[in-house]
Design a protein that fits this description.
Elements lengths: L1 E6 L4 E3 L10 E6 L2 E7 L8 E4 L8 E3 L5 E3 L8 E8 L7 E10 L6 E4 L3 E3 L2 E9 L8 E7 L5 E4 L2 E7 L6 E8 L2 E4 L3 E2 H4 L3 H50 L14 E6 L13 E6 L27
Parallel strand pairs: 1-9
Antiparallel strand pairs: 2-7, 3-4, 3-8, 4-5, 6-7, 8-9, 10-12, 11-12, 12-15, 13-14, 13-16, 16-17, 16-18, 19-20
GO biological process, one term: T cell activation
Keywords: Glycoprotein, Membrane, Signal, Transmembrane, Transmembrane helix
Subcellular location: Membrane
Length: 311
């Protein structure tokens, strides 16, 4: 069995061994399904190609040596391929098998930092390299940079032991599969085991600033609320003042009912005179009203309030 590899979106060629015999037909099989049948060129007859699945029509081609070419590869094209060459000079067909593996191009690998352990000024941790996608048949290796002699380590996990304060080391992970390879971003050693003091100081500052910010925001809310309440009280007081200052304009109309008293005067000097010749006075007594619309009184000018009718 011949091993073949291909990349997603690429193409692969299946080589065919020359048997030295006249070939009548060639049948290609994928797993258990017939892929294509070809009858080579003969004198007076052109080559004939029969593709069993329409979706493969544009993907299948043949070279001058009758090698099969399969293009636009997908992951599901991976599997076992078999070719059967039939010849009139042989009772049994010539058979050859292939194992095709289709891979994706690798993206940049991801590095994660494990737990840290500090003892006697030494920091110990580990780095793990992995792929998010396309992790089939991937091998990993590590390279240490910044040293007198660059070191390399195989495997996805790298164990590190270094003294605190050293900043002259960096590590990169290399991921590789049969069709591609890629490197991670450099990992600086001094960032792996930073001093706890700086971390503790940062945490302390965060815890100190948090309640201050909370108090600040609460004070702003209280101030805004009190300001709004004072504004509402000021508006209500102004409205009440406007109401008290309004005085209704009321003046009695000219047709208002007036009270009259009739007073009879008897003439003592002429007792025998008939009552018809009596003296009467009609006195109009106006109502006493306090009105803002009353005319002002001018000193020295009496206001007429009494009308006398003499009969």
């Amino acid at each position: 069995m011949m091993d073949l590899v291909g990349a997603v979106g690429g193409s692969v060629t299946f080589p065919l061994k020359n048997t030295g015999k006249q070939v009548d037909s060639i049948v290609w099989v994928f797993n258990i399904t017939t892929l294509v049948t070809r009858q080579p060129f003969r004198k007076g007859k052109p080559a004939t190609v029969i593709v069993t699945q329409n979706r493969n029509t544009e993907r299948i081609n043949f070279t001058d040596k009758d090698f099969l070419q399969l293009s636009k590869l997908q992951k599901n094209d991976s599997g076992v391929y078999r070719v059967q060459v039939y010849s009139s000079s042989s009772e049994l067909p010539f058979t050859q098998e292939y194992m095709l593996r289709v891979y994706e191009h690798l993206s940049k690998p991801r590095v994660t930092v494990g737990l840290q352990n500090r003892e006697n000024g030494t920091c110990m941790t580990n780095l793990t390299c992995s792929m998010e996608h396309g992790g089939e048949d991937v091998t990993y290796s590590w390279e240490g940079l910044g040293q007198a002699v660059n070191e390399s380590h195989d495997g996805p996990i790298l164990f590190i032991s270094r003294r605190l304060g050293r900043t002259d080391m960096a590590f990169t992970c290399k991921a590789r599969n049969p069709i591609s390879s890629n490197f991670s971003s450099p990992i600086l050693a001094w960032k792996l085991c930073e001093d706890d003091g700086s971390v503790s100081s940062m945490v302390f500052l965060q815890l100190l600033c948090l309640p201050i910010l909370v108090i600040f925001f609460i004070s702003i809310l209280i101030h805004l609320r009190m300001r709004r309440e004072r504004k509402e009280e000021s508006t209500e007081g102004k409205e009440q003042m406007d109401i008290h200052q309004e005085v209704p304009h009321f003046c009695p109309s000219s047709g208002e009912t007036t009270e009259y008293n009739t007073i009879s005067y008897s003439n003592n000097m002429v007792p025998e005179e008939d009552s018809v010749n009596g003296l009467y006075s009609t006195v109009q007594i106006p109502k006493t009203m306090e009105s803002p619309c009353s005319l002002p009184t001018i000193p020295g000018i009496p206001r007429p309030t009494t009308y006398e009718n003499i009969i």
